[in-house]
Fold this protein.
Amino acid sequence: MAGRKQSSTYTRNEVCIIDCDLTYAVHKLGGRWKLLILDKLCKRKMRFNEIKKEFSYISERMLTLQLRALEEDGLVKRTVFAEVPPRVEYELTEMALELGPILKQLSDWGGKQRSFIKKD
Amino acid sequence: MAGRKQSSTYTRNEVCIIDCDLTYAVHKLGGRWKLLILDKLCKRKMRFNEIKKEFSYISERMLTLQLRALEEDGLVKRTVFAEVPPRVEYELTEMALELGPILKQLSDWGGKQRSFIKKD
DNA sequence: GCCATTAGTTACTTTTTTGTTAGTACCATA
DNA sequence: TATGGTACTAACAAAAAAGTAACTAATGGC
């Protein structure tokens, strides 16, 4: 996100893609781990290491990056407790909760598409 | 899609991501231009160059790649007419049409999220 | 024979995204 | 004084996605 060339075609196209509400939305949810994280958090608030343990192979760096992006986009609320060792809790915002039913439908569609493709 | 290392963490994680119906679905729709193309095609069937003209800055290569991926995933039907110069028409499949209402909701959510974020 | 037209393909470069590894701060406890 | 636990950060490397530019096939009309 930081340190991009402002004039590349890549960036110019991104601007036009973000212009559309739909591609904007997918852009916001498109990180590799974001939806999986949201899925875990919709059950309950979790600490950093709890989330990490849900995904065998995610690196701490990636988890941090994805969580920060979700926070910046108003989908996740991050609460830091002034303790040692540190405790940080993550939970979904109202905005993210509204996404739930839509993602459920998308998930159903995914399952259907998958089995449809496999038939061939 | 072709020629990937089979053993990288990237690929191993992808396997586990594709395992989930939701992330699978987003994976299928996640190409930069795919949703924009679907959006145009849901109005009417179109020829290659017609689609191209809808997007000022897409390259022929990218358009080809995205269309082929959509075709492979059963979202777009490609019809080649045996004429010279060639004529090729693209149209949505039933599977893609079912996606319409879901994408509409996602688009609405995107608009809402965008204005919510801008307020700060 | 030569050109224009459509829908591509190929080889290559650029940019972004994801992953690896080692290290940090903090303080309570042994 | 050393150790452990949590939630990170920084520098770097690997992989994928996107973009650029030049080229192709086929044939009807000139």
Summary: Residues 8-10, 13, 47-49, 52, 60-61, 63-64, 80, 83-88 of chain B lie near DNA strand C (CB under 10 Å from a C1'). The first helix of chain B runs from residue 9 to 18. The helical segments of chain B are 9-18, 21-29, 34-41, 48-54, 60-72, 94-119.
